[in-house]
């Protein structure tokens, strides 16, 4: 089975621009979560989509948005980029019922998109 | 609300043992452990559920102390391949949809 893929892998933007990142989950996985990873803050949860609906949301400003399509592929959009948005953006997909309990299931991470804002 | 991982970093010689702790001030339902090697995506290691048993993965095992709201990851006879940053993710019963809250990570360096 192919793993989680993310495009593009690297991106350089300037302040004020907007960016769209894409994530294709493992076939059969319906949940996609997005994370921001920075050296100082670690993994910060952005949001989770399940069956085209946002199921969970982290504490990020409204400039960060996402969506999920019927084929479970997901996109994340950041508008009006700021220097502090420079980070590695990871997406992870999961298949329901793998945790053995009412708990988040195993997350399969993609390689990430390295975003640099100048 | 973010779980606290300790130590922040540890350097070992190949063959030595290590313990990484993940503590929360709130009651937990489950603890998830992942490892991220440099330049790679995080990879799942194991989940510990409240009331569950200690789990193992090769020479890596973990426990979950419900009274202390703490999980410990044990790496025995460490190998060079164990190097990386270990993250714990915690879930509290009251969180809607059981959202994962991640620790800041523990960097493990194994030297030959």
Number of strands of chain B: 11
Radius of gyration of chain A: 14 Å
Shape of chain B: globular
Strand content of chain B: over 45%
Short note summarizing the structure:
By secondary structure, chain A is an all-beta fold. Helix content of chain A is 0%, strand content 51%.
Descriptive report:
The complex is a heterodimer of chains A (118) and B (112). Chain A is built from no helices and eleven strands. Chain A has strands spanning 5-7, 10-13, 19-24, 31-38, 42-50, 53-57, 64-68, 74-78, 87-94, 108-109, 113-117. Chain B has 112 residues and is an all-beta fold. Helix content of chain B is 0%, strand content 53%. The mean pLDDT of chain B is 87. Chain B is globular, with a radius of gyration of 13 Å. Chain B has no helices and eleven strands. At the A-B interface, strand 5 and strand 10 of A face strand 4, strand 5, strand 9 and strand 10 of B.
Q: What are the main properties of this structure?
A:
heterodimer; A: 118 residues; mainly beta; 7-stranded mixed sheet; 4-stranded antiparallel sheet; 11 strands; 51% strand; globular; B: 112 residues; 6-stranded mixed sheet; 5-stranded antiparallel sheet
What's the layout of helices and strands?
The complex is a heterodimer of chains A (118) and B (112).
Chain A: E1 5-7, E2 10-13, E3 19-24, E4 31-38, E5 42-50, E6 53-57, E7 64-68, E8 74-78, E9 87-94, E10 108-109, E11 113-117
Parallel strand pairs in A: 2-11
Antiparallel strand pairs in A: 1-3, 3-8, 4-5, 4-9, 5-6, 7-8, 9-10, 9-11
Chain B: E1 4-6, E2 9-13, E3 18-23, E4 30-36, E5 43-49, E6 55-57, E7 60-65, E8 70-75, E9 84-91, E10 101-102, E11 106-111
Parallel strand pairs in B: 2-11
Antiparallel strand pairs in B: 1-3, 3-8, 4-5, 4-9, 6-7, 7-8, 9-10, 9-11
């Amino acid at each position: 089975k192919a793993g989680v893929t993310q495009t593009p892998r690297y991106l350089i933007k300037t302040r004020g621009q907007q960016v769209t990142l894409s994530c294709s989950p493992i076939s059969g996985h319906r949940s996609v979560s997005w994370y921001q990873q920075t050296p100082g803050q670690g993994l910060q949860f952005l949001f989770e989509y399940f069956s085209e609906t946002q199921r969970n949301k982290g504490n990020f400003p409204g400039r960060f948005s996402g969506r999920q399509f019927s084929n479970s592929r997901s996109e994340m959009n950041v508008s009006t980029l700021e220097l502090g948005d420079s980070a590695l953006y990871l997406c992870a997909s999961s298949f329901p019922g793998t945790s053995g309990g009412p708990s988040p299931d195993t997350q399969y991470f993609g390689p990430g998109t390295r975003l640099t804002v100048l | 609300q973010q779980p606290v991982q300790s130590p922040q970093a540890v350097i070992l010689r190949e063959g030595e043992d290590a313990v990484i702790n993940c503590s929360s001030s709130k009651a937990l339902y489950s603890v998830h452990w992942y490892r991220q090697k440099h330049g790679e995506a995080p990879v799942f290691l194991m989940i510990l559920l409240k009331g569950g048993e200690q789990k193992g993965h090769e020479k890596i095992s973990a426990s979950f102390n419900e009274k202390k709201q703490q999980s410990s990851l044990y790496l025995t006879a460490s190998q060079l391949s164990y190097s990386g940053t270990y993250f714990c993710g915690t879930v509290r019963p009251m969180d809607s949809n059981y959202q994962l809250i991640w620790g800041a990570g523990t960097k493990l360096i194994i030297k030959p």
